[in-house]
Design a protein that fits this description.
The chain has 351 residues and is of the alpha+beta class. Helix content is 49%, strand content 12%.
């Protein structure tokens, strides 16, 4: 419940999806750029850019790939503004994959095959079922992932060690680990049965604070009785040796700044009020980072470079966008009342 999961607009979502590929290298071309329409594709050209075109069939395949990899966002792909942004992203990846080094193309293809194998293994028979439903082939998925991971590999290779260190210094606090106990008094319990005003939640949180400050206070008992955080209430409210960067901003700030082993005043977040105690805290240094953590930082730097390309360079490379609008289905009009000459059944008290 404490994870930083605030809702994002569609554009933020797309930047996040790009960052996922940039940072992790696991979510997914060594192949040639698909800048021109595939042989036999006579569908309408929906985008023209310096170096190629994208047809309606190609773009629809991109939409299907989004639905396959991110089914939770299926409704978003029906938004015109989102579709145009996705089309521009497709252009960007094709341009950048074509410019990538041979080493990046080879690495992208290798990683794409590895990730596709993992995806198929995890999905089992459902994988083929979903492909058939979306009219995609195994080769379509491999080409898509290869293209994206080629760009990832190319951008990551350009990031210097000094840039990785600078990114760490900028986000140093997110790598701090802490053991934190808390009791959450939520505005709404997880089962939805109890709803509280902010005033009611704050009052209850102060009651919890007083109980925790009492001599010989039992965190296990109090957390189990009062906390609305299902992830920690049965463990005395404890999150042990956790990275503070994963938490919502207010909770993270408190975990970093509160004096050790002191019961806090109620800390307000989007979830409600938390009474906290930080039991330990360890600040990270660059030399102690794991290889995965350094790779994550490298991905953040390369992701920022890609976003800069999208915002500053890509517009000058696109010569025409002609994407059809999504047809909106009109809701059937409901009658507001009956006609005056309409016959109705008579009513009677007689049996």
């Amino acid at each position: 419940m404490l994870l930083n999961n605030r809702k994002s607009a569609w554009k933020s979502l797309m930047i996040t999806l790009v960052a996922v590929f940039m940072v992790s290298l696991i979510a997914g071309c060594g192949q040639k750029n698909e800048g021109s329409a595939a042989k036999g594709d006579k569908s309408k050209v929906v985008a023209t850019y310096k170096g190629g075109t994208i047809t309606e069939n190609e773009f629809n395949k991109e939409l299907s790939m989004m639905t396959l990899l991110y089914p939770q966002y299926a409704q978003v792909v029906t938004m015109d503004e989102f579709r145009e942004y996705l089309l521009k992203q497709e252009i960007a990846y094709k341009i950048l994959a074509d410019k990538a080094t041979d080493a990046a193309k080879k690495d992208g293809e290798k990683k794409a095959k590895e990730q596709l194998d993992q995806m198929k293994k995890a999905a089992g028979d459902q994988y083929k079922t979903e492909l058939d439903k979306l009219k995609l082939t195994d080769q379509d998925v491999l080409a898509y992932m290869t293209r994206l991971l080629t760009v990832v590999a190319d951008y990551n290779a350009k990031v210097t060690d000094d840039q990785v260190k600078a990114e760490f210094e900028k986000n140093k606090q997110n790598f701090t680990t802490a053991s934190v106990r808390h009791v959450l008094v939520a505005l709404e319990t997880q089962d939805g049965k109890t709803k509280r005003t902010k005033e009611e939640a704050l009052k209850r949180a102060k009651e919890v604070q007083a109980k925790l400050k009492a001599p010989n206070a039992d965190w296990n008992k109090i957390a189990k009785e009062y906390s609305d955080d299902g992830g920690s209430k049965d463990n005395g409210g404890l999150y042990k040796d956790a990275a503070v960067g994963q938490w919502v901003e207010e909770f993270k700030k408190a975990a970093i700044e509160l004096p050790l082993n002191k019961i806090s005043d109620p800390v307000e977040t989007q979830f409600g009020y938390h009474v906290m105690k930080v039991e330990s805290r360890v600040e990270m240094t660059f030399d102690k980072l794991t290889a995965d953590q350094k790779e994550s930082l490298r991905g953040q730097v390369s992701g920022a470079s890609m976003n800069q390309f999208m915002e500053k360079e890509l517009p000058g490379l696109i010569t025409k966008i002609d994407l059809p609008k999504v047809e909106k289905k009109e809701e059937p009009k409901q009658e507001t009342g009956k006609k005056t000459d309409e016959k109705t059944e008579p009513t009677s008290d007689k049996k």
